[in-house]
Amino acid sequence: MKIKEIFEGWRNNILPPEKLKEQIAVVSAERLVICEGCEHHSKNHSTVRPDAHCVSCGCTLSAKTKCLSCSCPIMKWEAVLTDKEELEYKAYENTNKAQ
User: Fold this and answer.
1) What per-residue string of b and e applies to 41-80 under the rule 16 or more CB within 10 Å gives b?
2) pLDDT digit string (tens) for the chain, length 99 residues
3) d(CA 66, CA 68)
4) How many domains does the chain have?
């Protein structure tokens, strides 16, 4: 996973952008259902980590599923924002911060 994707997932988990809040919630809920049924979910493995995470990629699911430009590394679900859309959103976000 790229650093920008890690940041996006945690940002969307802690303080989601208002414009994307509803989309993040819907996408995350759909992805979490898929992850719950996956053989790589931490609940199916002996682990010392207390969080729900993927044992394949190591990501915390509460953040990973909220990263709209991320996809599952074992292809259980795809990104919903392309790199171009992510750049457009970041430009929009930066413009609104200046106002």
Assistant:
1) bbeeeeeeeeebbbbeeebbbbbbbbbbbbebeeeebebb
2) 588 889 999 999 999 988 889 999 999 999 999 999 999 999 999 999 999 999 999 999 999 999 999 999 999 999 998 777 777 777 766 776 655
3) 6
4) 1
Global pTM? 0.83
Q: H or E element: which one contains 91?
A: helix 83-98
- Contact call for residues 74 and 12 (beta carbons, < 8 A): no
- Reported residue count of the chain is 99
Q: Give counts: helices (H), strands (E), the chain.
A: 4, 0
Structural domain harbouring 92 = 3-98
